[in-house]
Amino acid sequence: MSTAEPAGMDEATRRAIEADCTRLINLYALRNDAGDWDAVAALYAEDGLLARPSAPDKPIVGRAAILAAFKARPARAGRHVCSNIVVDVESATQASAFSVILLFQGEASEDGGLPVRDPKGPLVGWFRDRFVKTAQGWRFAERRGGLDFRP
Known about the structure:
Blueprint: H1 11-33, H2 37-41, E1 44-51, E2 60-61, H3 63-72, E3 77-89, E4 94-107, E5 116-117, E6 123-134, E7 137-147
Parallel strand pairs: 1-7
Antiparallel strand pairs: 1-2, 3-4, 4-5, 4-6, 6-7
């Protein structure tokens, strides 16, 4: 992973792109946890690709298909924690990143209070992302995930 500026790009521009792409990763987690599937899908380019960490060999292609896949999932309580985010700026319109993801899951509680955490523990995995600059700003061109430990 490189921290050198792409040809013709100053450090401030490179850092701004890094911040925008890091924000995209964090927005993805927050909107996913909120179950706001329209907002999650909007973070992808129209022809974006998602390969979930739990299903890396089953990529979902296209914003509409990504939205449909999220809406088809059963409701769950979850909290994603993202860390070790490193963004590499390739040009003024392309970047890539690696990040670590921790997913806590649970079920709704019978009393309507806090969800009950899954006793099997969190899922630990990662994402390799490719970003593209669109008219709407930076978007995921591709999110490919994997797990570091078996569930």
